[in-house]
């Protein structure tokens, strides 16, 4: 059985910078971004600490492909995608840890 994967979007408190990532452990990875566990990474430098979107795939391979597709899209497409699922751009951290 393959491990599931997630594509996710982190942003700043002002929703000005978007970071798209992929992981097999969403809660752990978002915690790493929020705590700046890796201080030299993009999310730490730009203070992307708010999870505003995520999507679960059945396999990590599918998630990686999904991440590549999303990264190829224009910013406006990404914003529309976030707004459809999370119109108020709320931090979804609590939701993924229920």
- How much of the sequence lies in strands comes to 15-25%
The name of the CATH superfamily reads GIY-YIG endonuclease
At the first level of CATH, what is the class?
Alpha Beta
Summed over residues and divided by their number, the pLDDT gives a mean of: 97
User: Looking across the biggest beta sheet, what order are the strands in?
Assistant: 2-1-3
Strand elements, count: 3
Q: SS-based structural class?
A: alpha+beta
Q: Mind sketching the topology for me?
A:
Layout: E1 5-11, E2 18-23, H1 26-35, H2 42-45, E3 50-57, H3 60-72, H4 75-85, H5 93-96
Task: Describe this structure as you would to a colleague.
Strands 2-1-3 form a 3-stranded antiparallel sheet, with helices on both faces. The chain has a single domain, classed as GIY-YIG endonuclease, CATH 3.40.1440. The mean pLDDT is 97. With 98 residues, it is an alpha+beta fold. This is GIY-YIG nuclease family protein. Pfam families: GIY-YIG (PF01541). Belongs to the UPF0213 family. Keywords: Membrane, Transmembrane, Transmembrane helix.
In short:
The chain has a single domain, classed as GIY-YIG endonuclease (3-Layer(aba) Sandwich), CATH 3.40.1440. The chain is an alpha+beta fold and 98 residues long.
Notable features of this structure?
single chain; about 100 residues; alpha+beta; GIY-YIG endonuclease; three-stranded antiparallel beta sheet; 5 helices; GIY-YIG nuclease family protein
